[in-house]
Amino acid sequence: MTNWTLAARAAKMNPSAIREILKLTDKPGIISLAGGLPSPKTFPLQEFTAACNTVMARDGAAALQYATSEGYAPLRQAVADMLPWTVDPDQVLITTGSQQALDLIGKVFLDKDSRMLVETPTYLGALQAFAPQEPIAVSVASDDDGILVEDFAAKAGTGADKARLAYVLPNFQNPTGRTMTEARRAALVAKATELGIPLIEDNPYGELWFGDAPPAPLTARNPDGCIYMGSFSKVLAPGLRLGFLVAPKAIYPKLLQAKQAADLHTPGFNQRVVAEVIRDGFLDRHVPTIRALYQQQRDTMLAALEHEMAGLDVAWTRPAGGMFLWVRLPEGVNAQALLAEAVERNVAFVPGAPFYAEHPDTRTLRLSYVTASSDEIRTAIAALATAIRAHQTKG
Amino acid sequence: MTNWTLAARAAKMNPSAIREILKLTDKPGIISLAGGLPSPKTFPLQEFTAACNTVMARDGAAALQYATSEGYAPLRQAVADMLPWTVDPDQVLITTGSQQALDLIGKVFLDKDSRMLVETPTYLGALQAFAPQEPIAVSVASDDDGILVEDFAAKAGTGADKARLAYVLPNFQNPTGRTMTEARRAALVAKATELGIPLIEDNPYGELWFGDAPPAPLTARNPDGCIYMGSFSKVLAPGLRLGFLVAPKAIYPKLLQAKQAADLHTPGFNQRVVAEVIRDGFLDRHVPTIRALYQQQRDTMLAALEHEMAGLDVAWTRPAGGMFLWVRLPEGVNAQALLAEAVERNVAFVPGAPFYAEHPDTRTLRLSYVTASSDEIRTAIAALATAIRAHQTKG
């Protein structure tokens, strides 16, 4: 195969930085704050087992047959009913995880060298999902409240150079944990509408709020100007690979066609099982237990950071929900270099650089507070502080 | 959204011809020979239910957590063990149906305007899966034994114009039901190796043989020159969306990266359930029952065609396995036009034109003999003959 010619994009394909780190850190005794793995304690095993049996007994062969690309009708209806604005189930497309929704959106919107706007930093998996279309990802300046609308307008471009889409994750963002304020949302939607730039709103963590629910989604403010993405990965379990998108009716058929071509349909058995688990309001009872657990673990991590990082010039975010917080290291400390020293001390994190579409800040890193237990979090943050001190001494 | 600019490819995206036909034919009382739906009688419902319970009891949360993009190790091992040449499990990538394998291969091999070679006719779903990369699909002349190797060489191209891949389905092809002979396989692999053109071998139906097993796969003859695709859809159940590819080690990482970007991983629960169902040789006992059922239904359809089409200038293939046969209508009868008359008479089929990358033969159509029962097949073929006669009278 040495004489095979690959697509130009293949030369740019590299293993996911996060997945490579997960391999690096897969050693006995390590405490990983790296992955974005929901706590397995939150998976509703009994309900899931019962639903498997119900679906097989009730639906039998229908659950195992080919199915429509749009998704299982009762699940599409349940998704429409869950959302806080008027959604027709015909606008709901069930996807194989919300990662697939990104792939489909990339196929429908992006040509080679199309401009697309992303936050600074942004979700690494979105950059990877869009990469096969070889767009130019433009990093819009962002602060603790999210994307800066003035810079959004400045970077929107015009004519053939106009951005094809803007990808944003307003609630408890991956990787920073930050949340867009009400005012910022209103301003962004107004500007995107004015400029005619579709907002791709990714909301996998929106239900995982700790104090108050976050402001209404961007899409609720202008459903015809946005594509909304959601997921059952963080409120039920990620191994099911069940996500969804909600699109304006005019664009839905193109996304559906991309879905047909990508994998025909999302496993029908999984769709039926989840529809069975969530009927009768299960999520209303279940999600508060996830919120309570993650809030406690966030509190543990924040307290440990306060304690262990004292005297070090380290800064971090204080997320109001979700799974991650974002750390900025002292001047001169490179997160990638620090990782080796941290792994030696049995703690792992994800360096922040891969989350930047342009101009990475190499002093940043992402910590998850949902996979490890509170005890492990305390141990890990102490080890991380030790690693930083050791690194500074060396430096 | 009227002012949104879409990717150039989006203008070429159309609903799947087959899926649109399935909607058209979704009326009460119709007998559909159109879809490629495996007989639900063949789905191992008890074994699947038992495996769901075993997996949940044994693996619990691990079955519902995020998993590796490569796939569940015991399933990769089982796939490697199933195949009739030496396969390292590290070469096996589990995909969300074999349709996804096509999407990944397209991303890794095809640029806009890359040439790719396909059979005449070819699997429509492959054309759709490759379409987002905007290749030029070149139709290689084919006869009852498969692709013509001389024409393959003539159309291979050179330099920048050299074909990036050749997509072939050697066993009981969708749509024609034909099988490549031993001699043709040997000649094709030799020529592809000489020219350095990767063979993409799709083998979803290979186990469904009626008399003798088909000749060895192309990939078994030159594993470094081929990518092999297989599926559990036709030997277990399609609603699980479980397929796989086997790739040379040098190209595997690129396909893996495309997989990560596309949907992170195939549902881990489904992978564990299938690994559980197939351990201890279940397929060795189960697949013969599918073969027997489909052989009987093929015989029924062939006998009905002999009887009902007598005196009409209609020709058809006699598949030695698989799910489909291919019909050529009398001169002047267009299959698309005939479909309306057939649906009036409560029988549906798929017109052949969408299966051609170039120069469609509009007198062709595809019939499935696996979804409808033998009684229904007899009724449907009689109705089809009536429709042809009515159409000819009109014409």
Automatic annotation (TrEMBL), chains A, B:
Domain Aminotransferase class I/classII large: 44-384
InterPro entries: Aminotransferase_I/II_large, Class-I_PLP-dep_aminotransf, PyrdxlP-dep_Trfase, PyrdxlP-dep_Trfase_major, PyrdxlP-dep_Trfase_small
SUPFAM superfamilies hit by this protein: PLP-dependent transferases
UniProt GO MF annotations: pyridoxal phosphate binding; transaminase activity
GO biological process: alpha-amino acid metabolic process
Cofactor: pyridoxal 5'-phosphate
Keyword line: Aminotransferase, Pyridoxal phosphate, Transferase
PANTHER family per record: AMINOTRANSFERASE, KYNURENINE_ALPHA-AMINOADIPATE AMINOTRANSFERASE, MITOCHONDRIAL
Subunit structure: Homodimer.
Family: Belongs to the class-I pyridoxal-phosphate-dependent aminotransferase family.
Protein name (record): 2-aminoadipate transaminase
Source species: Acidovorax soli
